[in-house]
Design goal:
2 copies of one chain form a homodimer. By secondary structure, chain A is an alpha+beta fold. Chain A contains 7 helices and 5 strands. Chain A has a single domain, classed as NADH Oxidase (3-Layer(aba) Sandwich), CATH 3.40.109. The first copy, chain A, is globular. Chains A and B meet through α1, α2, β1, α5 and β4 of A and α1, α2, β1, α5 and β4 of B. β1 of chain A pairs parallel with β5 of chain B, so a sheet runs across the interface.
Chain lengths: ~190, ~190
């Protein structure tokens, strides 16, 4: 990577080895506070978050149980689970909000930056049952569950099973910038 | 705001008064480089960006002309316009990617953090013609244009028309955290 970018962006990654060290309430609050200040179309602020702490909330197990087995295996050790949701209709006119997911993604971008700055790790999962989450967490129809996230401190990769340990070692990869950024439009032809 | 959050999150906002000072190419690159490192479902990296510089690219006018008049009025002064897009089908199996917009939002979250850190301002707009953008910028069917963004340095609010000057003065507002974050699920009943 030649182009210099912020450490909190460059060093963020999604581990599977979480420590069971709890996350201080104030620190957790700062993550959601950061999310709150994202921009959104018509300032709708469509993002919502449901969270639960492993040691304190019965909802933690409910959230954990929505995960596919491959995620359940490692996410059970994280001290906090959170679910991102989008309100998919505008409040002001009841019509579908085409950027609800996009705006919620920007809010989560803020959350990730804040978390990384606080020394925390966040691993988001789309491998969970949205239907079961809706039922277990009383999610009204106008909200769509998007991603379940494990939040906590880094643990010890040695405690992982063989498959997860291999996964943890893999370096992050991204497409080259030329495949993502186009000056003046998509290439002709 | 009692909870302490990162300055680059707290101080980001979307002005309408842009300076015509150009953005250095390396600095602009760092914004896209930051976007590149966002997480995404199955590491699909569905985000794409098209950009143009006012002084150098004929596409700048094409992009500007997709804007609704209320945006055109102020965005014409920004030195850079960029369009965020999402590839809405998975590359690996051709099926719809339900988190394409969300993941693209996270990439833009990174871009905004990097831009704010570099002293730049970004103002995103959903008020543009996606249809005209598709035509003018050769956007293939599998990509959806999401937000047009003006990127540049802060200008002088005194140069704005009366309506825009009033708009520029309004403080940012957000819903209270209690309306956005739910511990253990949505409230019963």
């Amino acid at each position: 990577m030649e182009t210099k970018i912020l450490d909190i962006v460059a060093k963020r990654w999604s581990p599977v080895a979480f420590s069971d060290k709890p996350v201080n309430e104030k620190i957790l609050e700062s993550l959601f506070e950061a999310a709150r200040w994202a921009p959104s179309a018509f300032n709708e602020q469509p993002w919502r978050f449901i969270y639960a702490r492993r040691e304190k909330d019965t909802a933690f197990k409910k959230m954990l149980d929505t995960l596919v087995p491959g995620n359940h295996e490692w996410a059970q050790h994280a001290p906090v689970l959170a679910l991102s949701l989008a309100r998919v209709f505008f409040t002001y006119n009841g019509k579908p909000n085409p950027t609800a997911y996009y705006d919620t993604g920007m809010a989560v971008g803020n959350l990730l930056a804040q978390a990384t700055y606080m020394g925390l790790f966040v691993h988001q999962m789309s491998g969970f049952s949205a239907e079961n989450a809706r039922e277990a967490l009383r999610i009204p129809d106008e909200y769509e569950p998007i991603a379940m996230m494990a939040i906590g401190y880094y643990g010890n990769a040695k405690t992982l099973s063989g498959t997860l340990r291999e996964r943890e070692k893999k370096p992050r990869t991204r497409k080259p910038i030329e495949a993502l950024i186009f000056r003046g439009g998509f290439p002709a032809g």
